[in-house]
Amino acid sequence: MNTNVVLDLAKLRRRCAQCSLHQLCLPAGIGHDDLDQLDAIVRRRRPLTRSERLYRIGDPMNALYVAREGSFKTVAINSDGEEQIIGFHLPGELMGLDALGSGRHRCEAEALGPTQVCEVPIESLEEVIHAIPGLSAQILRVIGRSVARDQDHLEMLGRRQAQERIAMFLHGLSERFRVLGHPSAEFSLPMSREDIARFLGLVIETVSRGFTRLQDEGVIKVRGRQLRILDPRQLETMALGSPDAPREQVCPRSA
């Protein structure tokens, strides 16, 4: 009797193809038992509605999170009680890394709309990392991309021209959709214009004028939250400068 187990690839892709760890599981082709072991520790949380918090400032770090559906923004609160948007997380991107250093969250993760979230308990993840070769390296790559996004945010805020900040934001968002396997030239913005303005350190009127100008110049087409990039090369030039021009490297300030 043939006891070989036939993998249901379609089921696996529905389950984790858009997760930030999928580069380990599907392309590398880990074994059936290993994949089941990884999937077994993932908890499917109840759905969250718009404005609900996944975790709050000061909460202990019990897990890492990945949005299967929907997006989040991460918000820090200063000493005056004012909120500052410090990041956005698309479906498939890892959340909760802010607590790696202290063991407690330094920001809040707020749902931008209806979401479905996978939760990876820390204590279980440590066990599986030792059991599955290559998983730790993939997690380090995911953490590295998160650090790179933080550096990109610093660079955006350092740009003097509002139009450059907006171009950098849209170009970076497009690249993130591409890495996650989503269409990168046409997508729906999960965040509002007000959220974008707060993230870029601008006022909402400036962001609206910036979108209109990019549309008038034939770089993008936007209707509500639906955005299409008509001239990717021009958007990249506006965001990053000429390919031959040296880019300024922005590094986070030492602690």
From TrEMBL:
Protein name: CRP-like protein Clp
Subunit annotation: Homodimer.
Domain (Cyclic nucleotide-binding): residue spans on this chain: 38-106
Cell compartment(s), UniProt: Cytoplasm
Presence of keyword Transcription: yes
Pfam family, one: cNMP_binding
Keyword DNA-binding among record annotations: yes
Species this chain originates from: Denitratimonas tolerans
Domain spans labelled HTH crp-type: 160-233
InterPro entries from the UniProt entry: cNMP-bd_dom, cNMP-bd_dom_sf, Env_Response_Regulators, HTH_CRP, RmlC-like_jellyroll, WH-like_DNA-bd_sf, WH_DNA-bd_sf
Keywords: Activator, Allosteric enzyme, c-di-GMP, DNA-binding, Repressor, Transcription, Transcription regulation, Virulence
A GO CC term attached to the entry: cytosol
Alphabetized Gene3D superfamilies for the sequence: Jelly Rolls, Winged helix-like DNA-binding domain superfamily/Winged helix DNA-binding domain
Location, primary (coarse class): cytoplasm
GO molecular function: catalytic activity; DNA binding; DNA-binding transcription factor activity
